[in-house]
Design brief:
five-stranded antiparallel β-sheet; mainly beta; 160 residues; 2 domains; four-stranded antiparallel β-sheet
């Protein structure tokens, strides 16, 4: 398993723009500030939240975040009518090198592994991705990994 970048899950107060709505700009700033420590190698450069967010307990929205070269999504749920919220990652962010290491460590023979061109693999839990394993004898196998949670844990689910 891979355990790398954790999800943010912090209670905050998002000040309201008016009595009926949250201030989406302040919420976006808050999301960026809250998640940044969880992704130290991926500087947060942009956060976009929906413009109209009713201030009501249970209301949930998705905020889009650009961190480094990756696009992330965070679910923001209001916990009360005051505008307190929780922020949760909806995706695992797995460094490519960690995924490749997982495949290498589970191979029975020396292998070179390539999990694609991106430095980070971003997937919701359960959505698989493929890596190519090349053995010294020339054999090539496709290895499918699947994130098991948003914390970046993954397992090998198939070898072809």
């Amino acid at each position: 398993m891979i355990a790398v970048l954790a999800a943010a899950g912090v209670f905050l107060v998002a000040p309201a723009a008016g009595a009926a709505e949250l201030d989406h700009k302040r919420l976006a700033k808050q999301v960026g500030t809250t998640i940044a420590p969880s992704y130290p190698d991926l500087p947060v450069t942009a956060v976009t939240c929906p413009k109209k967010i009713a201030r009501k307990a249970g209301t949930a929205v998705i905020c889009d975040v650009t961190a480094g070269t990756v696009s992330l999504q965070f679910k923001v749920t209001q916990t009360d009518k005051k505008g307190n919220v929780t922020i949760e990652s909806t995706q695992a962010v797995i460094p490519k090198l960690k995924a490749e290491e997982l495949v290498k460590n589970n191979a029975t023979l020396p292998v070179t592994v390539d999990c694609g061109p991106d430095a980070y693999i971003v997937r919701p839990p359960g959505v698989p991705f493929n890596c190519t394993a090349r053995f010294n004898d020339g054999t090539v196998q496709q290895v499918t990994l699947s994130p098991t949670d948003v914390a970046g844990n993954a397992t090998i689910t198939q070898v072809l």
